From TrEMBL:
Belongs to the iron/ascorbate-dependent oxidoreductase family. InterPro entries: DIOX_N (IPR026992), IPNS-like_FE2OG_OXY (IPR044861), IPNS-like_sf (IPR027443), Oxoglu/Fe-dep_dioxygenase_dom (IPR005123). Pfam families: 2OG-FeII_Oxy, DIOX_N. Keywords: Iron, Metal-binding, Oxidoreductase, Vitamin C. Residues 209-304 form the Fe2OG dioxygenase domain. This is Fe2OG dioxygenase domain-containing protein.
Amino acid sequence: MSKEKMGILSYDRKAELIAFDETKTGVKGLVDAGITEVPRIFLLPSPENLNSDQELSLPTIDLKGIHEDPIRRKQAMEEVKDALGSWGFFQMVNHGIPVDMLEEMKKGVLAFFEQDSEVRKQWYTRDRSANRVVYNSNFDLYSAPVANWRDSVMCTVYPNPPQPEELPSPCRDIFLEYSQQVMKLGCSILELMSESLGLPPNHFFDMGCAEEIQVTGHYYPPCPQPELTIGTTEHSDAGFITILQQDLVGGLKIFYQNQWTDVRPIPGALVVNAVTNDKFVSARHKVMANKVGPRISVASFFLANLKPEALKVFEPIKELLSEDEPAKYRSTTAKGFLDYFYSKGLDKTPALLHFKN
């Protein structure tokens, strides 16, 4: 028997996942240790498609004046409708969050991950209910087919914001400031989305689309063999909307018109994606691993109440349904959807398909 076949037979993936997890230092710990080859738990079964359409560009929407000028608001509303109806994503500028605050937020996430590993370990957990702050590598480490080249730190900031002492010191002040700003911006986006569909401005908010808000900082270390792994596996987000801040390293790709398209970073811009009864596209996206790094991104997820006792049922919006446009998804609770999303892991299959009629 060849050495290669013997190696495959002797590969205990579960044991290697546990060994990696128990270090509590994530992918950054591997890089700090000086590895030159990607460990097997991160290896893709086949090389990722690196080709991108260089001609296409994600729509960029200017939000300046939308709260003062009705004409600007209507224009932005139509642009949101077009972008989410075709791409499922858009970038936005003049969104109201100061550029220096965006930069400080990225610096705060970077500072968290670049703490001494013994300090960082204190925040490491897989129990999302145990701490206000959850730091780990790959939320779906034991369920996804391939581990991603990424570490994350997450905190639920609404409806019960953390006390300052509950947050890591490197990002404590900016985390609270940023989360307040992103909540305000998210509500404005939900209003534009509601109006673009001919619904009252507060419709999505009243539905419960912002009952819980999670802010997650992602850290993508430089990878010695980026062609063999992935930063974040192809997926569709689980929240109603996601507001994403990315640095200038790049790597985010969206699947549009049957091909992958780069989301080119624009300084000071934020990226939005959303989901409805297919009125808006729930776009597939992924993040490539890169020899350059670290890459920092900050994702703010607008969710329904995820507490076990919150049994509110979510279903396609009745006002948008007709004989010609029937419900494409069956009803579910937010917790039921998120439980399925987390148990399935990122495996290229959208969680929404599980609930399709």
